[in-house]
Amino acid sequence: MAVRACGLIIYRRLQPAPSSKVTDSIEYLLLQTSYGTHHWTPPKGHVDPGEDDLQTAFRETQEEAGLQASQLTLIEGYKKELHYPVHGKPKTVVYWLAEMKDCNTEIKLSEEHQAFQWLKLEDACKFAEYEDMQAMLKEVHEFLCSRE
Description:
The protein has helices at 53-65, 121-127, 131-146, and strands at 3-13, 26-33, 40-41, 44-46, 72-86, 89-100, 113-119. It is an alpha+beta fold.
């Protein structure tokens, strides 16, 4: 039985400089775990009994980053599943895409994380060590760029 987790890729748009492209103003939220290898990841967590996947993604985002569902806009048309082994067992993580309504909203970390960063795509990919996470961030960025 695969472990199942769900989360949100959260981004914000800063006010772009007049000469820059709109997509240059996008930053992604990554949290650094306070356990293990202290890897960087979007907010995510295991599905609780009786919960659907999207409920899990919003609950975990609230628990890990202090963000309420009402502070986010879920972006239609993007959902991604990643599959990888953890401690020898298969794991599935489902991600949706969400935009911060107010880019100055405070992030409040839980004990599970020790730091957070808002990062442009290139830096987010450097922080996210795993290739599938880097690929997903690039895919999200392309998706957002295609909607401009």
